[in-house]
Amino acid sequence: MRLVPVVFSLLFSAVSSGANAEGMIVLAAASLKDALDEAVRTFDANTGQNTKVSYGASSALARQIERGAPADLFLSADVEWMDYLAGRKLIRTETRVDLLTNRLVLISPAASNVTMQIAPGFPLAAALGNGRLAMADPDYVPAGKYGRAALQSMGVWTSVSTKIAPSEDVRAALRLVARGETPLGIVYRTDALAERKVRIVAEFPATSHPLIVYPAAVTAVSKSAAASRLLDFLRSPAARAIWIRHGFGRAN
Amino acid sequence: MTLTVDIERRLGSFRLKTAFEAGGGVTALFGRSGAGKTSVINAIAGILRPDSGCIVVDGSVLFDSKRGIDVPTPRRRVGYVFQEARLFPHLSVQGNLRYARLFSRAPETAGHFEHVVELLGLAQLLDRRPGNLSAGEKQRVAIGRALLSEPRLLLLDEPLASLDTHRRSEILRYIELMRDEVKIPILYVSHAVDEVVRLADTVVLMSAGEAVATGAADEIMGRSDLPGAAGPFEGGAVIDARVVAQDLEFDLATLAFDGGTLTVPNVDALPGEPVRVRIRARDVSIALERPQRVSIQNVLEGSIAGIGVESGGVVEVAISIGAAVLRSRVTRRAVQQLGLAPGQEVFALVKAVSLDRR
Amino acid sequence: MFPTLEELQILGLSLKVALWSVLVSLPLAVAVAYSLARVNFPGKTLFDAAVHLPLVLPPVVVGYFLLLTFGRRGPVGILLEEWFGIVVMFKWTGAAIAAGVMGFPLMVRAVRLSFEAIDRKLEDAASTLGAGPLAVFATVTLPLALPGVLTGMLLSFARGLGEFGATITFVSNIPGETRTLPLAIYTYTQVPGGDESALRLSLLAVVLSLAALFVSEVMVRRATRRIMGDDADGRH
Question: Do B169 and B261 belong to one domain?
Fold first, then answer.
């Protein structure tokens, strides 16, 4: 086997694959991963598109768009970061819709059999003991902000605020609980359903936190005609089935 | 002290197969470059591992392949002065000297440090760094360092090779001084004839990895049937003599040896001092009668001890003068013309004498 | 424009994490560098490649491996907790491990280079003076390798100071415990209105790095001078 030609052809194929048939770039919140992957696969299969999705914390993605990332579609995990971009005229406001809703849950590793009822003043700190509460960073990640809001409304935030293990995004928090590194964690219901190694201990009342809404919009810089078609597809009944199967709720 | 070496080692295409015995005093490992001299002392020091054989110093077995003995270098108590000094650059001169005491397993002799420093003239250098020393200074420090480790045997590997002529004689004098003052047996590697002649009591002649001859220095250095081994060394005689008189007017000295006297110019020695003289075979002529009105000052009476093998029209004739043996190189025609034969009484005319201190 | 108390605490934590990571990884790095420089053992190439892995893997991947190994459910984590009662998960010690692991290949490379540059003949000379292998290492090899060791320490320190991906993936972003300088800067950039703090911390990071570089440069020069043999007053 001749090494040099093989290496060359590998390099070239890597370089040239980017210049394929019209490709869209979607930036989406981490918690949408499994469901959105499936939806996009279906869309691409139906339309012959080649869509790439990049997942991360909504804050990081919004910052990337702000700095000029060539994204076509943005799916945020909270309203604040979409408003942030809207205020800087970085999205096409006429395309903005509230796509999905989600619920917040308290999880534990699958092997644990801890039980808890979420009610005002519930003994969360005691249940943590020496361990930590895994959640997305409440300072800037939507899932974390919802979590803090929920704990505050239950009146237990101050008792656990020093025991948080703040993660870069909600999936990282999920991973910690799945590994058994923390006794409890707060993630979206959709995340808990996606991970076999965790179990849902309790669901936070929808009233304990601002509504978890996933707004979606086409970006201002998008040159893709297919972007709004994708957005339409994501709101269609076909896509809805996928969302519900993964545990999301309809926005309206 | 007795040193017994009988080792074999293959180094690439070079085969070392050396066996010799040496006593106290200075033993020179003499031979040309590449003869294997450094390999031998490296084996004695434990830096080189022979394939087979044994090395014994004063009854202490340092290496014996049959019994599986291989004493590690640090425990051999063999001092080594390397050709390039190998001083530790991160220590001062004093640090280098004191290093020798750090790991020495021998008990320290009181005043030894000061004694060595004085002997080698190192007092001014103590605070200096090896990087700032001249080559000669480095060698002195290296010798001092090796001495301070209180070894039972001192190895010197061509210590003067990297020095210029002036430094060489200076350091040579220091080594002589050390030889006389310090009672440790010395193994001295060199390819330089004058060093060996001056310093050695015993000579082990090495050639192509083998010790081809061992014996007293004056005997070995006088032999001319070893031309290949000695390299560009010229056949001649080496004679131990003593200064008996000085002629200050003509700047001459009279030397007495066991067989007669020699008159030599420019001798920087005092009466009574022992010296060693070298007389090259080509500087000796033979006469059947004592010549008259000739410039040569040294005419010695003796008899022919033997006539050597001819090579290139030239023959070497050994002449015994008392207990000493001189060698003379003459043409075969001259031998025939004079009718030279063993036992014949002749006169040896010595044109030039090289002199080395002892 | 002066740093707030909180920012100074972040700085202090970063320094603590980076310094400890260097100190603890140093003996291991020296041992590894020595074995790579001097010893020929089976699997040496593989070992060398493994040592360099943190250099080529994405930091997040390294962080994940650390999570698997040193987490409370990981093999080493369980050992540490059971035998020594040490838990590194969610602690600054975990951040130090992340920093140390990421900087390790840099330290090993620098130290190995300096070991390889040492004249073995000096070590032979030392052994003829009675020094056993360990003594030779301590009194000749290591002192002569000092400039390389110092360089390796600086490289690892700088790498550890700037370590982000492995740290956040392994021990999360806990204020006061694992929120080192890079994590703090990142957090501030993510919060609307945090730009000023982010900028201040970034400037602090620059100052810190320059200081570390300067100190190390002085120390390396001095060590090299010692070895080159300048006299105390600088004469050459």
Answer: no
